């Protein structure tokens, strides 16, 4: 079979449209996390910025913190964080924040702009609320809003010059896609809400304001909580990430305030033992790639398991067997397009080879698409179908890898040399690590299919397996013929 006899599209790009409603963990990082050795600083000390001292006092006035609170805000390598005032045990509660101090879609509904926000996406309504309150001098959220950063190191805040350092990466295309998505949401918001209701907004809201609010929500909002998919929790969102913590279990939850109370509390626990004076950390998300960490929070890790590359494989509508292939894909919980995240040092994702073989089916192999094979074809695709089919998928994937690698302006060795020289801007360092990680995974994918090409002559294909099942192949692999008398 030749390449023209089956249409295979492997798109080397991250094509999923990101959404703020995607499950995410809380965060606030201004640079890459490091272990904190800072001693506890009294929250009333002049060493803390005035806005932080005002914030702590406000929390005290609200009855949320006191002199007995286990942790307090402090200046840490990341910027701000929570530092233990005393030893904190594993799974011990660090703080509890009542629902009246949460900012979520319910908060928006109860506000002056609530009637305007009913038809908006939840994240858009919360973003609009944040911006409006930010410009309201008498806002009841003033002390909290004054704590929020003007930007983070998330790639959505990078300049064009800084983004140029991501040339060739999927992170660059993802970041540009996210910014386009946010801009489109803003333009809709401007036409439907902002311009017709100027009297409700004391200041003109700009796209930069909207991107700021998006970045704040992306980096700080808690989700995966009982009844809460998007919520900002003042004080709790100062908690920083530590890669040394390898569990997400029980770090935070929503619970009742008491046996006879209907109030709800956000409860944050320390997943590990923390000594007095050390920073309290949690694990943001064990499953996010470095690209996702960079986009959401503005940092990356050195852990190679965070390096990944997404191969996007689709069944072209021009394929003469498009309908049959789509039916088979959907029967096996897939669709017209398959997204496969390949991780540094790990095997290919489950189902990837099967999907590739399905997309490449054609010519003399097309009989497998007949209805008689509907219940068994996915099992057949777990193993090589034919030499021509296997050769095609190897060639297409390797070509895609080479094409993606050609989009980079530097080699891995050149990037590593820059890293070794040190004294880099945090964003440039992040870009270098992203570039190195993606290139390593692309080289890994290419090597996997290069090795497979070398095995094409010794692999066992469908027809041989079928003959064996029928007892028509001998021990040496020779076909057995019977002579009729």
Automatic annotation (TrEMBL):
S-adenosyl-L-methionine binds at residues 78-80, 220, 240-241. It is found in: Plastid, Chloroplast. Substrate binds at residues 220, 224, 237, 252, 284, 297. One of its GO terms (biological process) is methylation. It catalyses: [fructose-bisphosphate aldolase]-L-lysine + 3 S-adenosyl-L-methionine = [fructose-bisphosphate aldolase]-N(6),N(6),N(6)-trimethyl-L-lysine + 3 S-adenosyl-L-homocysteine + 3 H(+). Keywords: Chloroplast, Methyltransferase, Plastid, S-adenosyl-L-methionine, Transferase, Transit peptide. GO terms for cellular component: chloroplast. Belongs to the class V-like SAM-binding methyltransferase superfamily. Plant protein-lysine LSMT methyltransferase family. This is [fructose-bisphosphate aldolase]-lysine N-methyltransferase. It comes from Arabidopsis arenosa. The lineage of its organism: Eukaryota, Viridiplantae, Streptophyta, Embryophyta, Tracheophyta.
């Amino acid at each position: 079979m030749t390449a023209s006899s089956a249409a295979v599209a492997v798109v080397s790009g991250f094509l999923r449209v990101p959404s703020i409603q995607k499950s995410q963990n809380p965060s606030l990082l201004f640079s890459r996390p490091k272990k904190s050795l800072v001693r506890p600083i009294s929250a009333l000390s002049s060493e803390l910025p005035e806005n932080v001292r005002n914030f702590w006092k406000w929390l005290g006035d609200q009855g949320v913190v006191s002199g007995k609170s286990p942790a307090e805000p402090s200046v840490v390598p990341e910027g701000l964080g929570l530092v233990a005032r005393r030893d904190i045990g594993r799974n011990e509660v660090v703080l509890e924040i009542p629902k009246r101090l949460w900012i979520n879609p319910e908060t928006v509904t109860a506000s002056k702009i609530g009637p305007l926000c009913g038809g908006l996406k939840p994240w858009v309504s919360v973003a609009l609320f944040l911006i409006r309150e930010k410009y309201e001098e008498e806002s009841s959220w003033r002390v909290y809003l004054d704590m929020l950063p003007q930007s983070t190191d998330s790639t959505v805040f990078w300049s064009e010059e800084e983004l140029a350092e991501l040339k060739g990466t999927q992170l660059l295309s993802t970041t540009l896609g996210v910014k386009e998505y946010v801009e489109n949401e803003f333009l809709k918001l401007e036409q439907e809400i902002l311009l017709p209701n100027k009297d409700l907004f004391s200041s003109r809201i700009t796209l930069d304001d909207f991107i700021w609010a998006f970045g704040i929500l992306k980096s700080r909002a808690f989700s995966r909580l009982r009844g809460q998919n998007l919520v900002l929790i003042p004080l709790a969102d100062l908690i920083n990430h530590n890669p040394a913590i390898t569990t997400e279990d029980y770090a935070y939850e929503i619970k009742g305030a008491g046996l006879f109370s209907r109030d709800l509390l956000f409860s944050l626990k320390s997943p590990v033992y923390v000594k007095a004076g050390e920073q309290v950390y949690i694990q943001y998300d064990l499953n996010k790639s470095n690209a996702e960490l960079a986009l959401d929070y503005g940092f990356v890790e050195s852990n190679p398991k965070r390096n990944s590359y997404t191969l996007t494989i689709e069944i072209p509508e021009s394929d003469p067997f498009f309908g049959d292939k789509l039916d088979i894909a959907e029967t096996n919980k897939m669709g017209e397009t398959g997204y496969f995240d390949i991780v540094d040092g790990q095997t290919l994702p489950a189902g990837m080879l099967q999907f590739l073989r399905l997309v490449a089916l054609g010519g003399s192999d097309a009989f497998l698409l007949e209805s008689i094979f509907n219940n068994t074809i996915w099992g057949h695709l777990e193993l090589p179908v034919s030499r021509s089919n296997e050769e095609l998928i190897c060639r297409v994937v390797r070509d895609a890898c080479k094409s993606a690698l050609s989009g980079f302006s530097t080699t891995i060795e050149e990037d590593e040399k820059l890293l070794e020289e040190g004294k880099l801007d945090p964003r440039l360092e992040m870009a270098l690590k992203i570039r190195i990680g993606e290139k390593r995974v692309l080289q890994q994918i290419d090597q996997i299919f290069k090795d497979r090409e070398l095995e094409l002559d010794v692999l066992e294909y469908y027809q041989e397996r079928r003959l064996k099942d029928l007892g028509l192949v001998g021990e040496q692999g020779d076909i057995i013929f019977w002579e009729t008398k």
